[in-house]
Amino acid sequence: MLEIKDINVHFGVIHALKGISFTVNEGEIVTLIGANGAGKTTTLRTISGLKKLTSGSIIFEGKDITNASAQDRVKLGISQAPEGRRVFSSMTVLENLELGAFLRKDKKGIADDLKMVYEHFPILADRRKQAAGTLSGGEQQMLAIGRALMSRPRLLLLDEPSMGLAPLLVQEIFNIIKDINKAGTTILLVEQNASMALQIANRAYVMETGSIVLSGTGQELMQSEDIKKAYLGG
Amino acid sequence: MEQLLQQAINGISLGSIYALIALGYTMVYGIIKLINFAHSDVYMLGAYFGYVCMTSFKLDFLPSLLISMILCTLTGVIVEKVAYKPLRNATRIAVLITAIGVSLFIEYVTMAIAGANVRSYPPQKGLFAQSVNLGNINITMQQIIIVSITIILMVLLQFIVKKTRIGKAMRAVSIDSDAAELMGINVNTTISFTFALGSALAGAAGIMVGIYYNSINPLMGMLPGLKAFVAAVFGGIGIIPGAMIGGYFIGIVEVLVSGYSNSMYRDGVVFAILILVLILKPAGLLGKNTREKV
Q1: N or C: which terminus of chain A has fewer CB atoms within 10 Å of its end residue's CB?
Q2: Smallest Cβ distance to B293: which of A80, A95, A137?
Q3: B241 exposure class (CB count in 10 Å sphere: 0-12, 13-18, 19+)
């Protein structure tokens, strides 16, 4: 579904992504794990079109989207819940969700998807009139994911959904991510919480300073001694 | 008491002008964090466009107002495309200095074309020359027209910003432009639209000042522009209702100072208010020191 071929990305003189390649197949949950500064977020921003790449190509469902605008990528079915949630704080929860469907014209479909988001995250329905900035961290994360779902994506990019959340809440969010995947959305998940990510992922890639150093199924990597030492705390 | 009411009415008329200009400052600041110094010159151009419509083409006020607003919209959008868009990723100070350059450019090009001398709007006829007397209070038709058109434009603006698709895009971009882009919002189009809206309002203010004070000149935008900027800061820069409140407040204060003390003090008082606001409530009347939840 998504093919990343040898992409290089620079921030000025800093070589942030050094020729990384990987694939995401339809229906999978794929996770990118690695330490801070490894280039995980940059990878997602490059896929969603916020960051321009220096060389390499991105193929989505057989189409070369390397030079497509961020808007076109949303239209094609790529949607991102960014790192740090980035909800529109002074707008209401409902307005945030409506903005997620900004490019869509099908009123009926939007209403259905709103219902679907409220089913995944009932708390958002209760708070729909409230300014997004007044929500708790966990609720804001739910809103960021719900907002990303409102464009009815085929591929959902999630950047650190567990960041700053209590363990119970992290568990809840990850269960919902699994549900969303079961309902037919392919997911590319970036996480520092490697153990959680590996538990739900079909496949995983490990990044280190701009390169992919290891890949395998979630199970395989969880067993790997190197991974246990470096990321799983033992 | 009657004098106070009379002054209040004059203040509201002047405040309408400031409020219209302040809206453009505040919206552009809200969306790209730029104090667009060229904005006050778009207002000046509005007065000139109106002048040409009413003298050379002998048009009535309303068609002149519309044409003036349309031409100012175009000017604003072109200025953004030519001068600011290439600097989207530059430092803020570079854009700010460019804005000052654009401001001087518009002023002196106007001077080269129209001359530096003061021009007078044609005398108002018919309905526009009338006034209403309530006891000893005199309200001119021009004042009624200025205040009502301003209110209509503000209601329209609120509708656009709150209810329409592009308005929602404007608010989203002003809160977080990266996140807005992830929603599929075209950030550049949204910025252009914001300049268009602000410039249309400045154009309306320009032609209304023309019929109110009668005289226009290429540098007429400087002082009202600064005061409208003070109004925007007073209300909380980036906040639309703040600019409206700030505009009326500055207008009324200025007229009261002129009326009750020495009119030489009126500009001084306005800028003293700016200093006080910056000391006591730096985010402005409606501004909040927003704290992010983590």
Answers
A1: C
A2: A137
A3: middle
C-alpha–C-alpha distance, residues A234 and A156, integer Å = 31
| DSSP line for B26-62 | HHHHHHH----TTHHHHHHHHHHHHHHHHHTS---HH
User: Which of A88, A92, A107 to probe the B interface (max B CBs under 10 A)?
Assistant: A88
Alpha-carbon dihedral angle through residues B86, B88, B90, B91, given to the nearest 10 degrees: 140
Give the helix/strand (H/E) hosting B201. Answer: helix B187-213
H or E, element range at B161: helix B141-163
Contacting residues of A for B181, CB less than 8 Å apart: 49-50, 70-71
Residue A97 CA to residue A89 CA, distance in Å, equals 12
Query: Taking CB atoms and an 8 Å cutoff, what residues of chain B touch A91?
Result: 168, 171-172, 175
- Domain map of chain B by residue range? 24-221
CB–CB of A100 and B183 under 8 A? yes
pLDDT band at B293 (very low <50, low <70, confident <90, very high): very low
Pick among B161, B176, B182, B289 to test the A interface (most A CBs inside 10 A)? B182
Sequence ranges of the domains in chain A: 2-84+152-231
Instruction: Looking at the complex, report in whole angstroms how far the Cα of residue B83 sits from the nearest Cα belonging to chain A.
Output: 23
Please answer yes or no on whether B185 and A151 come within 8 Å at the CB atom.
Answer: no
pTM for the whole thing? 0.91
How are beta strands A186-191 and A155-159 bridged, if at all? parallel
Smallest CA–CA separation between A134 and chain B, in Å? 8
Burial class of B205 by CB neighbour count within 10 A (0 to 12, 13 to 18, 19+): buried
Instruction: Quote the strand ranges of A121-196, DSSP E.
Output: 155-159, 186-191
Q: Which residues of B touch chain A, with CB atoms under 8 Å apart?
A: 165, 168-169, 171-172, 175-176, 178-186, 290, 292-294
Q: With the C-alpha atoms ordered A141, A146, A149, A150, is the resulting torsion angle positive or negative?
A: negative
Q: List the pLDDT tens digit at each of the 234 positions of chain A.
A: 999 999 999 998 999 999 999 999 999 999 999 888 899 999 999 999 999 999 999 999 999 999 999 999 999 999 999 999 999 999 999 999 999 999 999 999 999 999 999 999 999 999 999 999 999 999 999 999 999 999 999 999 999 999 989 999 999 999 999 999 999 999 999 998 888 999 999 999 999 999 999 999 988 888 888 787 777 765
CATH of domain A2-84+152-231: 3.40.50.300
Complex ipTM, two decimals?
Answer: 0.91
Strands A55-60 and A2-11: antiparallel
* Structure token digits, residue A179: 């549900």
The answer to whether the CB of B85 falls within 8 A of the CB of B195 is: no
